[in-house]
Amino acid sequence: MARAESKISQSTIVDIDRENVWHHLVQHKQFDSTDPMIVVEGHGMRVRDSNGNEFLDATSGGVWTVNVGYGRKSIAKAVHDQLIKMCYFAGSTGSVPGALFAEALIAKMPGLSRVYYSNSGSEANEKAYKFVRQIAHNKYDGKKNKIVYRERDYHGTTITALSSGGQNERKEQYGPYTPGFVEIPHCCEYRCQYDDTTDYGVRAARELESVILREGPDTVGAVVLEPITAGGGAITPPEGYWTTIQEICKKYDILLHIDEVVCGMGRTGKWFGYQHYDIKPDIVTLAKGVASGYAAISCTVTTEDVFNQFKNDVSDSLGYFRDISTFGGCAAGPAAALENLRIIEDEHLLRNAAEMGDYLMDKLHGLYEKHECIGDVRGKGLFAGVELVKDRVSKEPAEETMLMKIVADCQAHGVLIGRTNRSITGYNNTITLSPALIVSRSEIDEIVVALDAALGSVGS
Ligand SMILES: Cc1ncc(COP(=O)(O)O)c(C=O)c1O
Question: Residue 16 and residue 185: Cα distance in Å, rounded?
Answer without folding.
Answer: 45
